[in-house]
Amino acid sequence: MVTMRMCFLKGCITLFMLICLNVSHAQVKVTGGFIQDSTKIGIPFNYYLTARYPSNLQVLFPDSTWKFEEFEFQKKRYFPTVTQQGESYDSAVYTLLTFEVDEVQFLALPVFQLQKVDCTYHIPPRDSIVLSLLVTEPVPDSLSAQDLPLKTNTGYQRVFFLFNYPILLIVLVSLVVLTVALWLIFGKRIRKHFRLKRLNGNHQKFLQTFSAYLQQLQSQFSAEHTERALFLWKKYIENLEGKPYTKLTTRETLLLEADTRLRESLPVLDKAIYGHNNQVLEPLNQLKALAEEKFGKKVEEINHG
Hints:
Number of helices: 6
Radius of gyration: 47 Å
Order of helices and strands: HEEEEEEEEEEHHHHH
Distance between the termini: 115 Å
Helix content: 40-55%
Number of domains: 2
Strand content: 15-25%
Structural class: alpha+beta
C-alpha cells in the first residue's frame, strides 16, 4: 500500500514538472526567418529573430560566436527591448553570407531562456533561402574556351584595403638597424660637426655683442657699459671652458688664470667700473684677443679629440 502511494506521489510530481515546463515554453514565443527569398554566393542577406516573453524572464540571442551552420556571420543589429503590460519584445537582424552551392539552404536560430539551474532554448521553425547560381547549365568538357557559356560581371565590387604589416615591420627594423650602423660609423663625426657649429655660433654672437660695447665706449665712456662688457666676457669664457668666472672676484680669477693680459686688464677695468679710470678700450681689446685665442684652442681640442 505504501509502495503504491509513493509511486502515485512520484507520478504526480513528474506530471507537475512537465506541466510547468510546458507552461514555461508556452510563455516564450519565438519567430525567425530570412528576409530575402533568395541570395547569391558571397552576397550578404538578412535573417530576423524575435522573442515575445513575460518581462520577469531573461532571454539571450545568439552572438557572433554561434555556429550558423553553413552560413558565415558578418554582423548583428540588435534592437532595444520593448516592454508593455508585463510583456517584453526583443528582435535582432543577422547579416550572413554563404559560399555553399546547395540550391536551398536552411537555418533556425534559437533563443535562450536563462533559469537558476540551467537555460532552456526555444527554436522557431526552420526557414529556407534559395541560392541563385550564375551558371545554371553544366558545361561540357568538349567546348572550347570561346564557346563557354560564361556570364560577365563588370560591376564594381569594393575590396577592402589590407595593409601589409609584415612588410612594414621589416622596413622599420631595417631602418633601425641602418640608423644604428650609421651612428656607430659616423656618430663621432656627426657629434663633432654639431659641437663645432654650436661653438662657432656662440663665438660669433659674443664678438658681435662685445664689439658693440667697444664702439659705444669709444664714442663715450660709461661705467655701466664697461661692467656689462666685462660680465659678457666672463660669461663667454665660463661657457667655453666650464670654469665659474662670473662667480669669481678679480683676485680669484687671477689665481685661477695666470695670464699677463688678465693681470694688466682686470684691475684697470675694476677701477673704471668704480669711477677711478676711463681708459678701458685697451684692456677690453686684450680680453677680446684672449677670448679669440681660447676659442681657437677649443676648436683644435675638438678636432683632435
